[in-house]
Every structure is written in C-alpha cells, then in structure tokens.
Amino acid sequence: MKWFVFVLFMTSEPNSPNAYLFTTPSFDTQRQCAVAVVNPNTIPIFVNKLIQEFGTTPAIKSISCISQETIDKIDEMTNHPEAKSI
C-alpha cells in the first residue's frame, strides 16, 4: 500500500487553499512517510513544492501520512455523497 503526505493549512479565507496532498514522493509504509516529513534532507522538497503551487508556504496546521485506501475512500465520499463515512 502506498502512503502520501497530506498537509492541512490554517486559513480563514474562503478562497484560500485549506489542504494539499503530495502525490510524490510516495512511500511504501506509514513509517517511511512519517520519517520523511521530519527529515532535514526531504523537508525542502515539500517546502519547494508548496512554494511552486501557491507562491509561498501557507501556514501549516498539521501534516499527516495517509494511505491510498484512505484517499480512495475520501474520493468516493466526495463523488458519491450518499456513501458511508470512513
């Protein structure tokens, strides 16, 4: 199963982004993902991608590692609101 970095931003503006899912890099385990988000060698990869996407680094509320399975469930709930909760 693949794991991905998911970032929630602190925002109060309605048109501001509130989250970002890094599709690369992906990880084979939750532990590899968790290590990557605190590794001084990989942090610049994430920061540079946020700057590329948003022109700045939005204020970060939380960083999580989520599985492909969770992403699929969220997609299903978004595309089919009648779906059950995770």
What would your notes on this structure say?
The protein is α+β, with helices and mostly antiparallel strands and 86 residues long. It has one domain. The chain is 36% helix and 28% strand. The protein is built from three helices and three strands, in the order E-E-H-H-E-H. The chain has helices at residues 30-36, 43-54, 68-79, and strands at 3-9, 19-27, 60-67. A three-stranded antiparallel β-sheet has the order 2-1-3. The chain is flat and about 40 Å long.
List keywords for this structure.
86 residues; flat; 3 helices; three-stranded antiparallel sheet
Compute the number of strand runs: 3
Low-confidence blocks of residues:
none
Mean pLDDT: 90
Helix content: 25-40%
Main sheet makeup: 3 strands, antiparallel
**Secondary-structure element string:** EEHHEH
Distance between the termini: 17 Å
The tally of structural domains comes to: 1
Q: Structural class, from secondary structure content?
A: alpha+beta
Radius of gyration: 14 Å
Q: What is the global morphology?
A: flat
Query: How many distinct helices?
Result: 3
Please list the strands of the largest sheet in the order they lie side by side: 2-1-3
Strand content: 25-35%
Task: Please sum up the structure shown.
The protein is an alpha+beta fold and 86 residues long. It has 3 helices and 3 strands, in the order ββααβα.
Describe the secondary-structure layout:
Elements lengths: L2 E7 L9 E9 L2 H7 L6 H12 L5 E8 H12 L7
